[in-house]
Amino acid sequence: MMTTLASRPCPTSKKAAFTLIELLVVIAIIALLVGILLPALGKARDSARGVQCQTNVRSIVTALTLYSNDWKAKFPPNDDTAVVPPGQLRPYWYDTERIGVYLPQVIRNDSGSTINETVGGGVMVCPNHNAAARSYSMNQWASSNLRGNNGNNNSRPWDANVNFTSQMLLVGEAWGRQPPAAGAERLFFTVSTIGAQGLPGERFGGGAGVADALPINSSNAEPDADRSPTGGLGISYIPYYRHPRRSGNTYARTGSAHLGFADAHVAAWKPEDLFNRTAPFKSTYKVFWAPNDREYEQ
After folding, report:
1. CA-to-CA distance for 126 and 194, rounded, in angstroms?
2. Hey, which residues does 115 pair with through a beta bridge?
3. What DSSP string runs through 69-111?
């Protein structure tokens, strides 16, 4: 007997579906890939921020070099004296009328009753520095208004005509020691200079470090300042925690920081490359605060 076309049964259509086991396998693979990729993405992001910070420092040292070309090899002044003539404001390298002439694109300013309006934001901020309006400070001993030795410190001032410019520290990453003014946006500024206290190796973090690198007002310290006690010891002028970025133990002498030099080059430096970790904790003399670092540390 012949089966007509109309009487033939239609094939049943079945849709393929994942079994529970297959679904779990896919989820596990995705989780594994995420676990592999996230650290790599984090490292790539931190590397990009490091490059940005390095570019910032290069812009600043280039601006300071241009300033020295216009001012007979002198870098800007940094005046922390307690008394200034009536009607005169204290001059600093980051004033809008000094570095601001060479970095006009910066965006934020701060001011005070005894200082000029100053430059912040833009190239003045390391992307790994929280709540910062300025992340960098100038080497004290390159200030043009220093005369001879400063107080009890035997470091010798220098200018753009100094020898070995590739080793002479001009600008470095620094702590946001200056809190915002009352009622202002909570952005923290570095003070003008680093390197005023201690021996050359101590300034980099060797031994007891220095006392004046800590925030000016510890109760209103920048977010990155470690809240753990330092045991009464000082810290480094250089905050090594930013590269690679870490959120805890920020006073520790581990990591790296970007330093700019008198020849306008910039490089990342680790603490072990800057000072010896064993007594007497001297500088390695790969980077100089002043031309007489070796003599001063003897």
Report:
1. 17
2. 90
3. HHTTTPPPP----S---TT-PBP-TTBTTTGGGT-TT--EEE-
Give the distance from CA 156 to its chain's centroid: 25
**Count of residues for the chain?**
298
Identify the helix (H) or strand (E) that includes residue 39: helix 20-70
- CA 57 – CA 68 distance, rounded (Å): 16
147 within 8 A of 157, measured Cβ to Cβ:
yes
DSSP string, 149-169: SBTTB------TT-S-GGGBE
Distance CA 118, CA 217 (A): 20
φ and ψ at residue 170, rounded to 5 degrees: -110, -45
Which of 263, 237, 245 has its CA nearest to residue 172?
237
Digitized pLDDT (tens) for each residue of the chain, 298 residues in all = 455 555 555 555 555 666 877 777 788 888 777 777 667 666 667 778 899 999 999 999 999 999 999 999 999 999 866 566 667 788 899 999 899 999 877 776 676 666 778 888 899 999 999 989 999 999 999 999 876 545 456 789 999 999 999 999 999 999 998 876 665 677 888 999 999 999 999 999 999 899 888 777 666 678 888 866 555 567 899 999 999 998 888 988 999 999 999 999 999 999 999 999 998 999 999 999 999 999 988 7
Q: How many CB atoms lie within 10 A of CB 59?
A: 19
One-letter identity of residue 221:
A
Q: For residue 142, which amino acid is it?
A: A
- Supply the pTM of this predicted model: 0.83
- The number of angstroms, rounded, from the C-alpha of 112 to the middle of its chain's C-alpha atoms is 24
* CA–CA dist 107, 120 (Å, integer): 6
Q: Between vectors from CA 135 to CA 44 and to CA 180, what angle results, nearest 5°?
A: 125
Query: What does the alpha-carbon distance between residue 161 and residue 165 come to, in Å, rounded to a whole number?
Result: 8
Distance CA 35, CA 290 (A): 48
